[in-house]
Amino acid sequence: MKRYWLALLVPALLLGCRKNKNGGxxxxxxxxxxxxxxxxxxxxxxxxxxxxxxxxxxxxxxIADNALRCTVEGLPSSVTVTPASLTVTHLLGGVxxxxxxxxxxxxxxxxLKVDSKKFGVQTYNAVLRIVAAPDYAPIxxxxxxxxxxxxxxDLSGRYISVVSxxxxxxxxxxxxxxxxxxxxxxxxxxxxxxxxxxxxxxDGKTIWGRGTYSHDARPGHESHYMMSIDDTIxxxxxxxxxxxxxxx
Length: 248
Fold this sequence. Notes:
Strand content: over 45%
Radius of gyration: 30 Å
Distance between the termini: 97 Å
Shape: elongated
Structural class: mainly beta
Order of helices and strands: HEEEEEEEEEHEEEEEEEEE
């Protein structure tokens, strides 16, 4: 008789102890449940790729039997979402990379959509908030007394360039005496995360270029910034490519 009850008891114990890998009871699709965790408002600057992440918490059932297909939809057409979709199982979450292109500052609503066997398509609302980049033009303004050019293998001597911001135009710089063209010759440049010299005429020459700026970490220069700009100058039939170093 003892052997008979033992034979019945062992399978019951095995069934009672069976757990899924997510911490809930493994009862298949019908008893599957989850909650979604994500940032409802994501803030970033334009021109910077943004990683939108989310996390799935399984509260009942086994996600292995209830894979979730996730997509991001509703953003402006200039935004590219990679990958196009994610299938979520035991990793319990995922990341979409948003390549923003050019978006105006402000709030851009979108949806995180999750398709499952039990619930069909569920929609979670979110907002991509584009904030204006800091205006570094006033910070970069100043008198740079150790500028030099490196043009096609030739290094120029040091010279002075006065860089100023424009009061009523954010992100705009006016640089004098680049390439030693004279203190009265002004070159315009826009500042974002880069320094961009749009195509323009200065001292009878056509000039354009693009470069970077950074904090000057040299001893004694802790409060200074520096710029390095790759530019092209066309004068008549002559074309010169250079790197201009704007330094203190």
